[in-house]
Amino acid sequence: MFTCTLKNETYQFRSIADVLAKASEEKSGDKMAGIAAGSSLERMAAKVGLSEITLKEIYENPVIPYEMDEVTRIIYDDLNLFIYKEIANWSVGELRDYILSHQTSTSDLFRISRGLTSEMISAAAKLMSSIDLVIASQKIRPTAHCNTTIGEPGRLAFRCQPNHPIDNPEGILASMKEGLSYGSGDAVIGVNPNNDSVESVSRILHMTHDFIQKWEIPTQNCVLAHITTQMHALKKGAPIALMFQSLAGTQEANDDFGVSKDILDEAFQLMATQGTSTGPNQLYFETGQGSEVSLDAHLGIDMQTLEARTYGYARHWKPFMVNNVSGFIGPETIYDGKQVIRADLEDLFMGKMHGLPMGIAPTYTNHMQADQNDQEIAGMLTALAGANFYMGVPGGDDVMLSYQDTSYHDDASLREMLGLRPLREFEIWLEKMGIMENGKLTERAGDLSIFK
Amino acid sequence: MDIQTIVKQVMEELQKEGQIKSKPMAKESAETEESNVRNIIYEKIKQVGVEQPANREEIEKAQSITPARIGIGHTGTRMKTKNYLEFRIDHAAAQDAVFKDVSEDLLKELKLPLLFSKSETMDQYLMDLDSGRQLNETSRKWAAENLPKNKQVQIIVSDGLSSTGVEANIRDLLPALVQGLKSKKITIGDPVFIKRSRVWIQDDVASIVNCDCVISLIGERPGLATAKSISAYLIYQPNEDTVEADRTVISNIHEGGVPPVEAGAHLADLIEAILKHKASGVKLAQLK
């Protein structure tokens, strides 16, 4: 379908999907799927080819046909055709130049994003370097409101993630107090349950809700069980401020997750009528490159493009938070620190370009070639790029999910090194509690025993 | 409080904090270079790192009910040296746990037949998921010829990503599970151990032995606090339409999580429910 000649060598590409896959920076998951570029020059030939392809060609060739995939349908049905037609003849190279231009305002970017399919956004990201991705991400600042407002300039939020290996309520509470005492928890107090039963999930929801009420904390609670379990709990009267679900970029992978448009529509409606929070944004999605490959549901599409499609799907339900956890799966998708850092920057840009309030969880597992240094670099770069939030895990070590994520200490550090403040409502609360003064932690901070 | 009492308290506190001990090596010769060598012994001790806490006992109590790294305090916004080094040491240990093998002696002791997936090396296992999801030809043939067929339950033990998890828990977990099933009069085939295997290999095994429910006891990828953890994945009659949401999973089986003996009994109850409702995973959760 396309050829590109480079240094006296001609490279052939079968389809848009093929060019997209081969233009991707190196990732082990694309290699495992057998779709990655075979050499560095083939990768460059794909990038050159991609830069010449028009948005119209991409529009007319969705990587997965409309008829066979719900994700494609949502992306196309939600598209603003008026705006799309204005830019249909642009090449991907021109789209990249437009995004980076000084003449292009934040508002311009929000506007064209309504006329871009996810594949177009993925394509532009493939022509970008690390600084490109950071500069572009800084320009786009989507906000959302649940009980707190997330995404305002100069503010950085954190999810307090007080997991416990067997959901011991006292243990969860202890880690939660610890996190709050470091100023973590303005995005959400979100617990990953070990036991996914309705009873257990409801118990944690009640406990976190009661604590938030008692200490008058401006935030929201969430238990990250399967969405159907949470709906069940909500119908039985459990207090939910934010409802969670993991999403992927193909219908097949979403089937594997046990989630669909119908279920998400029902959850959205249920939260509007029975959720405890102000809204209008009451959903929390988790995404990340590689889930489709690890479920063998990638249909020959590269990880980065599938991640973009996940955002195209997610934006339909106007979430309060989208958390990217590329790096959570393992070396078969993201091999090492270098691949994680690249994926984090790509995902932050692509999510923001979809108008989503993005957070990043720079994570690593113990069976991949990455360590704390790589993770901290990814955290600093994405914070510079304007991520809305990070996870807050005690000491960076999640004792339930067995992986490493940003710690309460990292959270406080990122704020202080970039001069960022907690979310407005939450900062007032921290000052009232004596945990923070003028944007800096006080001597009282880090002492969980102040909650008595 | 007088000054002497304060000094005494501070001295006691400092002694308690002796996490990294160092002592001069016994003098064996008069040579000065030799006598300057120090032996440093690292020991992991949980202690309150918060400076002047509002309530020290409260923090100690909190530290005793969770393995999470809490009550550790800070220097500026960062972790103190000993907590930072402890974290890095635990990460190093977890990385090492991935690449160790389960001992042959344990398999002999448990009388488990040893089967193999298609992964020939650890690197292939980590990077090529499919290779860990199917038995290799030799094992497949052996299983077809030797394993009992048409039982209600087939048990698989997998090293997964933590052979240390299998070594630490399977001696207690497996007998407790088998006993629980027997007391419920549920029929069981011969449990097997499959080296370098992933969860989905249970679908392959089910197609050979034709059982109703397969349970995989598999080493979890190691965490920092829990390098020795096992997960149990259960599925009712897997086939080509099976999806991830059809699997029921119980994770964190280890002494600091769900203790293995307790987990065995719980899993037997769960299998009983799966057989009764003829479903597992999200479907089972909705029926229950």
Walk me through what this model shows.
The complex is a heterodimer of chains A (452) and B (288). Chain A is of the alpha/beta class. Chain A contains 21 helices and 16 strands. In chain A, helix 18 links the parallel strand 10 and strand 11. The mean pLDDT of chain A is 96. Chain B is an alpha/beta fold. Chain B has a six-stranded mixed β-sheet, with helices on both faces. In chain B, strands 1-2 form a two-stranded antiparallel ribbon. The termini of chain B are far apart. About 2% of the residues of chain B have low confidence. The chains are: A alpha/beta (452), B alpha/beta (288). Chains A and B meet through helix 2, helix 11, helix 14, strand 13 and strand 14 of A and helix 3, helix 4 and helix 11 of B.
Largest inter-chain interface?
A: A-B, 66 and 60 residues
- In total, the number of strands of chain B is 8
Helix fraction of chain A, binned, reads 40-55%
Shape of chain A: globular
Alpha-beta content class of chain A: alpha/beta
Strand content of chain B: 5-15%
Low-confidence stretches of chain A: none
Short synopsis of the structure:
The complex is a heterodimer of chains A (452) and B (288). With 452 residues, chain A is α/β, with parallel strands linked by helices.
